[in-house]
Amino acid sequence: MNYTSESLVDEAYLTVSETFSTHRTKPLSWRIDQLRKTWWMIEDNKDRIEQVLYHDMHKHKQEALSVDAAGIQGACLEALQHLKEWAADEKPNRTDPVNLFTSTRIRKEPKGVALIMSAWNYPFMELFEPMICAISAGCTMVLKPSELAEASQDLIAEIVPKYLDQDAIKVVTSGPAGMDHILSKKWDHIFFTGSTVVGKIIYAKAAANLTTVTLELGGRGPAIVTANADIDTAAKRIASAKFMNAGQICLTVNHVFVDPSVKEQFIAALVKYFDLFRSGSSQQPAHYSHVINERNFNRLDRLLEQSKGKIIYGAERDAKTRYFSPTIVDGVLPSDSLMTEELFGPILPILDATLDEAISYTNKYDHPLALYGFTTSRAEKDKILSQTSSGGVTLNDCLLHMTAKGTPFGGVGASGIGAYHGPYGFKEFTHLRTVVDVPGWMEILFKFRYPPYTNEKAAA
Ligand code: NAD
């Protein structure tokens, strides 16, 4: 693996720091230009993005283009459309006398030099969407793609300097061993997408320099299927979320709590849809992603082997190609091996639980990034929302809260700090600087302010 040397990391940091200090990334014209170029960078390289994603994880074109390409281009267009309004000064409420008579405003200033680090499962989207937010805010930045999606990393390192401002946006490559050096720099903001374990390392390193962070972390997102759910639709949507990228999605359904009265029907429907999505008898469908590397393949394999649950579907594995079929495990208890960590793979544990039990189990774990409730009952929806916490929620479907425009995407507690997408991402890279410009004539109002202090002035 070809990683950036420490001296080149130093050079990249110095270059983007110097560029920021020239103030030339602050005008909207620079930001708009870079956003347009980002859009074209994706447009011109769609075929290659598709190829490297297939190489790295056997990801099918349909998934690659809809998320890693269209998602990024959509974020560019949203930023281009709204940038002026996001970046405009805000006037506070004018009822306070200071606000009323001065030109009080909140300026949106770029935080400065950002470090953006990403995970491997959506290697383009997880790097370029935060980059779009940082560009929109007027920051300069260093991008650190995940080394595990190697072909994607190499393509990113190749195309970014060809399209974007080389003095303001640099790519460095590194594995965990080189991160100490990168994180020892004084960044003005770190945007990290990855696991909760590594997120804690990043947070601790950032604290040494009082650097602000956005941490987009993992979580064990549950789906709760109650007796009042539309069972066939619930099974179809959960199977589809688990099939996508072979379950290697931060927002995927980690496990399902299903009411015992509808479990049989639910599992039959899950099997039907997994069969359908795999195109029937095909053992290794060409349109299904593989596990990213041997370490993750072996981890999933071990968790499945140690499980006391009953494998009722799938579990076909091929260590050579890292194919791991969608797998349903029934009768899983909260103490099972499959419940010890975020699965981040195509295994779907099923736990018998009433709604109250599902809520109680869920609240025993860290707050997940996503939570899915399947029910047609309004009272049950309210109960799920009011008695649990998670980064986001989709009711009666999966993943969709991530795509809702104008909404924040992020975790809570162990699943993350901060949120992005659209205006929320812009804010993560922006310092809100309050400015009060006081006219001289206000002396008339201030005469009681100055010493010497007297009882008369105090009473006025
Ligand atoms: P990871 O935490 O292992 O790696 C993420 C990044 O951190 C990579 O760039 C990697 O090089 C770097 N890194 C790894 N070890 C490090 C260390 N010791 N010190 C400093 N940097 C280090 O995560 P991953 O395996 O790439 O991705 C999977 C995880 O990411 C899952 O937990 C998943 O839920 C989470 N994730 C979250 C989101 C989100 O938006 N919240 C999106 C995708 C993935």
How would you describe this protein?
By secondary structure, the chain is an alpha/beta fold. The chain is built from 17 helices and 19 strands. The chain has helices at residues 6-21, 28-44, 46-57, 61-87, 97-101, 125-137, 150-163, 176-183, 196-208, 231-243, 263-277, 294-306, 355-364, 378-387, 422-428, 443-446, 455-459, and strands spanning 105-110, 113-117, 140-144, 169-171, 189-193, 212-216, 222-225, 255-258, 310-313, 317-318, 323-324, 327-330, 347-352, 370-374, 392-395, 409-410, 416-417, 419-420, 430-435. The strands form five sheets. It has a seven-stranded mixed β-sheet, with helices on both faces. α6 (125-137) links the parallel β2 (113-117) and β3 (140-144). α2 (28-44) runs antiparallel to α4, α4 runs parallel beside α6 and α6 (125-137) packs across α15 (422-428). The termini are far apart. The model has no long low-confidence stretch (mean pLDDT 95). Bound molecules: nicotinamide-adenine-dinucleotide.
In terms of topology, how is this protein built?
Blueprint lengths: L5 H16 L6 H17 L1 H12 L3 H27 L9 H5 L3 E6 L2 E5 L7 H13 L2 E5 L5 H14 L5 E3 L4 H8 L5 E5 L2 H13 L3 E5 L5 E4 L5 H13 L11 E4 L4 H15 L16 H13 L3 E4 L3 E2 L4 E2 L2 E4 L16 E6 L2 H10 L5 E5 L3 H10 L4 E4 L13 E2 L5 E2 L1 E2 L1 H7 L1 E6 L7 H4 L8 H5 L1
Helix pairs in contact: 2-4, 2-6, 3-4, 3-7, 4-6, 6-15, 10-11
Bound molecules: nicotinamide-adenine-dinucleotide.
The site of nicotinamide-adenine-dinucleotide has 27 residues, from helix 8 and helix 9.
